[in-house]
Amino acid sequence: MTRWRQTGTQEAISSQALIAATARFDAEVAAATRAREHYWLALVGFVVSPPMLDSAVLDHENIRVAPVVGCYVCEEPWTELTATRRCKGEPR
Ligand SMILES: [Zn+2]
Question: What pTM, to 2 d.p., does this model score?
């Protein structure tokens, strides 16, 4: 069981839910890659010390990397222009 906590709230994510999310992610990336469609992700970086995922506090106080949106497949950042272009696939 992994617990992702935020100020005032705590959400427990079961191992089964994480495994299902990983499988869904892999399937969606594969489908997007075949269709040459971008797979946009918003990534946020949290600092954790010590890095213990089962008790990590993920809230506004330990954000170190603001949300960055980019394509997981081609690694291009989201812009209005890149959003209109087909995904080029894995970066070369
Ligand atoms: Zn892409």
Answer: 0.75
